[in-house]
TrEMBL record, chain A:
The keyword Ribosomal protein does not apply. GO terms for biological process: inositol biosynthetic process; phosphatidylinositol phosphate biosynthetic process; signal transduction. Mg(2+) 1 binds at E67, D87, L89, D218. It catalyses: a myo-inositol phosphate + H2O = myo-inositol + phosphate. It comes from the Eukaryota. CDD domains: IMPase. Keywords: Hydrolase, Lithium, Magnesium, Metal-binding. Mg(2+) 2 binds at D90. One of its GO terms (molecular function) is magnesium ion binding. Its cofactor is Mg(2+). It is an enzyme of class 3 (hydrolase). Responsible for the provision of inositol required for synthesis of phosphatidylinositol and polyphosphoinositides. This is Inositol-1-monophosphatase.
TrEMBL record, chain B:
InterPro entries: IMPase, Inositol_monoP_metal-BS, Inositol_monoPase_Li-sen, Inositol_monophosphatase-like, Inositol_monophosphatase_CS. GO terms for molecular function: inositol monophosphate 1-phosphatase activity; magnesium ion binding. It comes from Dorcoceras hygrometricum. Mg(2+) 1 binds at E71, D91, D94, D221. This is Inositol-1-monophosphatase. Responsible for the provision of inositol required for synthesis of phosphatidylinositol and polyphosphoinositides. Pathway: Polyol metabolism; myo-inositol biosynthesis; myo-inositol from D-glucose 6-phosphate: step 2/2. It is an enzyme of class 3 (hydrolase).
């Protein structure tokens, strides 16, 4: 497992460097649209290429699921085979907007469909989150834990506006936020699902949910990083987390029940 | 009476004070915090109070005739009126909730007004080591490098920031989320980071295209940020489109190209 982690860290750092140095600050981004507000850049594609090339050279028999390859070639089914699930640049909108500092590489590794290794690297803030199943969660090599907050009204909640702009989705989003604002301390939106999960894992955030994000690559690494930090990852309905559902919620164990109840809007 | 100091001196001393306070914030950031409540979700800590003390002591030594308005002093002793006198307007720790939770958007904000006009601005995030500075007429800088607002012309490609604030009565919360709902149909996406001063800096350096906030604490949240935005080529105005009023607890900011469309959208 440690070898898989080391490989993932190396791949993440290479990609991080590509994103920042080759395509970074002061450079005009060539932005394409996957949807009205769902962006992709050559950086996303290049980063996915370097990550896949590196990991394939070490593990040619493993399977690979990447956000950009999926967009180009269609969905790859998640099987029990050792599978690398990669978001080469989570927070593309942030990256395009002068590197609003919440961007990251997210590399998850599943065996038997279970997240087993997770690496999330934010090259702008130089923060590397790592976890191996059963072996704890780390930020830049130091162990991290979820918060010990027990009260919803003292909790910091994160969510995102997402990329759908139809009326019923937006109304559901803002109605849910309205409902939650009466119950929590405050709300943050930073634009990266993977980094929101890391925020919960290191205690900066107490609660996170997102419904309708892109795919398993947004959560494969983060889910493990949260659970290895002592947190819980679940479906916003309270049911078990499903990595392909495009729905996720996370919190420490004290807040889960109250949070799940508050989410049933 | 002629000043023996130049605006550059004011800036240099403000940066020194910000860095001293920044060290205290950085040290406290990773420790357990003792939190008091100014309101149900409006927090203050001993760090806020200590930083204000340090900044005031430092600046008062150099500029004993200047006036001082600070968030924590105002909370303790009541509001001080803003006059034409050179006045330091200080938020010793903007983003207290973030500070308590270890979320890295915290800053010291030090503004100087002369004739009620923001003239010098310093905003320092000691966790991300980002120092934003500006002097009226002399440009805006991030860690010494010149910065500019974005050149975005289309609202639908613009990144908007706002905050949910600290009021939790139904009317305010409903208005807040209704406005966000309407805006989400018109902009690219939404960010909420928990620091008004850093949102203004985000506009100034082009990371954000649009910002508005209604009902923040006081002039200390914006005195520095306002000059940092305008010196980066941006506009600061009341969300209604009228002129910006530093004591109104209302603010909007954008680049000049987006301003009209933004005001139009905010009015709906």
């Amino acid at each position: 497992m440690e070898d898989f982690l080391a490989a993932a860290v190396e791949a993440a750092k290479i990609a991080g460097e590509v994103a920042i140095i080759r395509f970074g600050f002061h450079k005009t981004k060539n932005v394409e649209h996957k949807g009205v507000v769902d962006l992709v850049t050559e950086t996303d594609k290049k980063c996915e290429e370097v990550i896949f090339d590196y990991l394939r050279s070490k593990y040619p028999d493993h399977k690979f699921i990447g956000e950009e390859t999926t967009a180009a070639c269609g969905v790859t089914e998640l099987t029990d085979e050792p599978t690398w699930i990669v978001d080469p640049l989570d927070g593309t909108t942030n990256f395009v907007h002068g590197q609003f500092p919440f961007v990251c590489v997210s590399i998850g590794f599943t065996i038997g469909r279970i997240p087993t290794v997770g690496v999330i690297y934010n090259p702008i803030m130089d923060e590397l989150f790592t976890a191996i199943r059963g072996k704890g969660s780390f930020l830049n090599g130091n162990p991290t834990k979820v918060s010990t907050q027990t009260e919803l009204v003292k909790s910091l909640l994160a969510t995102e506006a997402g990329t759908k702009r139809d009326k019923s989705t937006l109304d559901a989003i803002t109605n849910r936020i309205n409902n939650l604002l009466f119950k929590v301390r405050s709300l943050r939106m930073s634009g990266s699902c993977a980094l929101n999960l890391c925020g919960v894992a290191c205690g900066r955030l107490d609660l996170f949910y997102e419904v309708g994000f892109g795919g398993p690559w947004d959560v494969a690494a983060g889910a493990l990083i949260v659970s290895e930090a002592g947190g819980l990852v679940f479906d916003p309905s309270g049911k078990e987390f499903d990595i392909t559902s495009q729905r996720v919620a996370a919190s420490n164990s004290f807040l889960k029940d109250a949070f799940t109840e508050a989410l049933q809007y | 009476m002629p000043e023996k100091y130049s605006v550059e001196d004011f800036l240099a001393k403000a940066v020194d004070a910000a860095k001293i306070a920044g060290e205290v914030i950085k040290h406290g950031f990773y420790q357990t915090k003792h939190v008091e409540h100014k309101g149900q979700v409006d927090l203050v800590t001993e760090t806020d109070k200590k930083c204000e003390e340090l900044i005031f002591d430092n600046l008062k030594q150099h500029f004993p005739e200047h006036k001082f308005i600070g968030e924590e002093t105002a909370a303790a002793c009541g509001a001080t009126e803003l006059t034409d006198e050179p006045t330091w307007i200080v938020d010793p720790l903007d983003g207290t909730t973030n500070f308590v939770h270890g979320f890295p958007f915290v800053c010291v904000s030090i503004g100087l007004t002369i004739g009620r006009i923001p003239t010098v601005g310093v905003v320092y995030n000691p966790i991300m080591d980002e120092l934003f500075t500006a002097i009226r007429g002399k440009g805006s800088f991030l860690n010494g490098k010149a910065i500019n607002v974005s050149s975005q012309t289309e609202l639908v490609k613009a990144l908007l920031a706002t905050e949910v604030g600290t009021k939790r009565d139904k009317a305010t919360v409903d208005e807040t989320t209704n406005r966000i709902n309407r805006l989400l149909f018109k902009v690219r996406s939404l960010r909420m980071c928990g620091s008004c001063a850093l949102n203004l800096c985000g506009i100034a350096c082009g990371r954000l295209d649009l910002f508005y906030e209604l009902g923040f604490g006081g002039p200390w949240d914006i005195a520095a940020g306002a000059v940092i935005v305008t010196e980066a080529g941006g506009h600061v105005f009341d969300p209604s489109g009228k002129d910006f009023d530093i004591t109104s607890q209302r603010i909007a900011a954008s680049n000049p190209l987006l301003k009209d469309a933004f005001i139009e959208t905010l009015k709906q």
